[in-house]
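I am still getting used to backbone structure tokens and would like to learn alongside you. Would you supply a protein for us yourself, any chain you care to pick? Start from the sequence, derive the backbone structure tokens from it, and show both lines together. Go ahead whenever you are ready, and we will take it from there.
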Amino acid sequence: MLPELLPRPPAIGVDEYRTRREALMAQLPANAAVVLPGASLVTRSHDSEYAFRQNSDFYYLTGITEPDALLVLLPGRDTGESVVFCQDRDPTLEAWTGRRLGARGVEREHDIDQAFENADRDALLPTLLEGRELLYVPLNNPDALEIAEEAFSAAHAGLRRGRAPLKGWLDVSALIHAMRLIKSETEIALLRHAAAVSARAHVRAMQASRPGLYEYQLQAELEHEFVWQGGSGPAYSTIVGGGANACVLHYIENRTALSRESLVLIDAGAEFDLYAGDITRTFPVGGQFSDAQRALYQVVLDAQERAVSAVKPGATLVDIHQNVVKDLTAGLIALGILEGDVQARIDDESYRRFYLHSTSHWLGLDVHDVGTYRLDEQTPRPLVPGMVLTIEPGLYIPDEDDIPSAYRGVGIRIEDNLVVTSEGHENLTSGVPKQVTEIEALMVK
């Protein structure tokens, strides 16, 4: 029987993309411009490319998914404030690689004021930027910096002819990333769908698990569900770590056979319309936790559930993380993996041998989404409705002689996706079990 198809949420409309561009331009000083390149194809091998994935900031402002495009925002321009340069129409190339929108298609389908093909860019771009005093570009993008430098040279050369000087360029990324931190209702609907697809995939992997399978076979179960549900595939490299492989945080080889006595940690999420799901679950390969595995798992689960319950407006990720550290450290001491006083082990950072990462990150168009975690160096950013984040504590016990043997080589992480609401939060990934009894019941063959 073929898997059930989930209903697709509505796509983000062109009006929302236009509103975003207008909101960005409203933050600019007078006589400024934005220059933002999209992504380009990347060669994988010889004459084949990796699957194309648009630059997230460019997509956030345009919705355009074609490579080699350039967005120029020109506040106050009478003939159109939004200008896009796009791939040239080319019937021969389109016969090989598919239809291109062309300038008229970009204007019509994406509500762009004016569009030109890339063949005209070198001639037209300097004229568009003429007289602009400040350019806002992504400073980590070499193509954008090259455009800024060329504009500066052109402006300098025109000083004797009365052209206004270009004073310099600033980073546009911080402005866009602050906007991206608060999700709209349509974005949340897409994230909810990506989370639901991801949850179904994790359930499917749990049900498929059995001793003797290879990690990559569970990966195949996950990624089949992602694509079957209309996603573009995984939002990041799928992690399937059996046994001690779970102690490698970004383990992606996925080539080891699964052992009956081991746990397997899966960190995987679907990408849908470029929005990411990001779930981690840890479960016994054979369907039943051992006593030691259950005890360690419960430490992580208790910490994770308390952290989830703390997500609400006004809370901070710093406070949530500190409380997770206390819970995990107390659990490690109770199990005899650490010794002494909880606060002493936090102060000397002994716990960091077993808990190496932060508890949360933002989630959105990127799996580790953009946005600062602090308002300044001393002030953590408080949560507000519309933020989307993960809660993902874990414990990773090395296989070393000073550790009780029952816990050696065991890695556990539990991760959910949450949206902050005015009342508290919504857990987008509750569709995949995490209680010990629920996992064992699901895995009964």
